[in-house]
Amino acid sequence: MNLFFIGWQNMRHRPASVILSLILFALGIGLVSFLLQVDRQIQQKFENNLAGIDLVVGAKGSPLQLVLSSMYHIDAPTGNISLGNARPFLRRGHPLIERAVPLSMGDSYRGFRIVGTTHEILELYEITTAEESLWRKHFEVTVGVSVAEKLSLNIGDRFQSSHGFTDDLHSHDQDLVVVGILPPTNTVLDQLILTAPGTYWHMHGEHTEEKEAGDKTQDHNHSDHEHSHSKGDHEGHDHDSNHDEHTEAGDDERKMEEENFSQASLSYLLRQPDEVAITSMLLQFKGRNFQALNLGRNINENTDLQAASPAIEINRLFSLLDSANAAIKALALAIVFVSAISIFLALYNKLRTRKFELAYMRVKGASRTQVFFLIILEGLLISVLGIVLGFVLSYSGLYLLSSSLESNYNYSLSQLQFTVSDVWIILAGLGVGVIAALIPAIQASRTDISLILNKGEAGG
Amino acid sequence: MSYTYPEGPDLKFPDFSVPSDGRLLIIGESGSGKTTLLQILAGILPPDSGEVKVANQSLYRMSRAQRDRFRGRQIGLVFQKSLFIQSLTVSQNLQAAAYFAGKVLKNGREMDLLERLNILDKKASLPQKLSVGEQQRAGIALALVNQPQLILADEPTSALDDVHAKAVYELLTEEASRLKSALVIVTHDQRLKDKIQQTISI
After folding, report:
1. Pick from B80, B97, B99: which is nearest to A460 by CB?
2. What is the pLDDT of residues A201-259, one digit of tens each?
3. Which neighbouring-strand residues pair with B12?
4. Which residues of A touch B87 (CB under 8 A)?
5. Whole-model pTM above 0.90?
6. A367 touches B at CB < 8 Å
7. Quick check: B120 and B111 in contact, CB under 8 A?
């Protein structure tokens, strides 16, 4: 027997009086916890994927769209740019640019985006993995861990891509072959299918010129995302599908292999003609000096390209989200406040009916302190239950959100984890419980013991 | 011993003492100061002058907290209308009474008590589910569970018919003898007058 037990029994005895407070409290706590978790998850997602990218360069359009599509892969690309325009930035030796990663986008496989890029993208996200698991030739792909898990892809599996980011019926004839699976990176790469930039030209281009292409390349002029596949086209595909045959077929290819230049290398890309298109580039500066910071403006003013700074765009996005966030947070706090008042009222109103009971406890030897803590305990019990219920609500909400994001966008929230903010929510919740119970508890501790004996006289 | 209400009558009470297994009836009409005396005896209301000793300890020389604890342990109060913690069962109420007095019930003592009072089958019932007679007996069990030196009964029989009044009175005296406790009954119920020899009228 102890105060806790008595408090617990008191709560269970007349649940009706506390159930409203409990529900309100749980809603408030749940909403606050849910918001903070989503907030944290979004920030974390965006920050993990920032990966030291200083500038995104692509076709003219909305800068936010450019950043979202090229870095977070959650929007359509703004369009394509020609290799000719991109070449100055991709070439090694640019005075301001430390690293440049070309991206070709537009196709997907069962909702996961296929990105044509070079191995530099791994350096950008600081990912190390076995060489042999990387894409080296056209139509070879390395898949992110989430893709592999969701689609049960294994090394050696073949699939056909579809045009666009949704599962439309149209697909390209050429099979893509999985050559490797990336380790978990907790970045957007987990959700991507990586391949050589050239895969795109082969999938979308006309390959009739290939044989005449001479020593420069065997494919170009193919990234216009038109897909009228002529017969010649198919021949081209067939030609490329067998890689051994392919390398044996062209002297250039063999030469490149000998030089250890894969088709996923930047130098291979740079040897392609100017008309070849890519979608965008991710740039990392050597240093964030004045000139580097001006590079974006120069690109926007003096070229057909668009440069967008991820930091600025993401800030803009966050500030948009922030006002919505603040409104919901205010609502959640209002709910917590109302629930605190309702806990107060529930306890306070019960005092009137419990007057004799409290006086009785005092007569039985309970000290004022014990009576005080009994009421505080009852307030705490409501808030503890409310917190537990609130977290159940919030975490199941997050789970639902995560699964809906995953099924709709292949974008998963990272593992639900208990954070410092959750600890603060719990402490604040307990604090609210105590404060709400404070006045009733003081009132209760002042219960007049003589009451019950007076009643006896009145009755007699 | 005396007590003066701020704007009320000046009450004076005679000296009296009850031996450890003795009985005392304090009889008086409403407004006679009966309740005031009861409160003073129970350690609830400090008198202006005079002293109350229970088990050789002076109640009003203790601190208030000490007195509360002492009351829980040594003074068993029986009320006209029994009081309980409504959310606890009869046996949980007995345990709570021991807990507030700083005691732990051992060897099922509360069960023996309930058996003697013939309400053992109600041990797991909530107080509000008991009949009035059962409530009265459960109230007596609560007063006795800590084995007090003094049993103070406030109008224990006034609301009862003759048969029940007699039964309650007999229970009280029986249990008081068993515990060798002093039994003080404060009442206006004249029926008890010829049952207890030591009587004070106020």
Report:
1. B80
2. 777 654 433 333 333 443 444 444 444 444 444 444 444 444 444 444 455 555 445 44
3. B2
4. 6, 9-10, 12-14
5. no
6. yes
7. yes
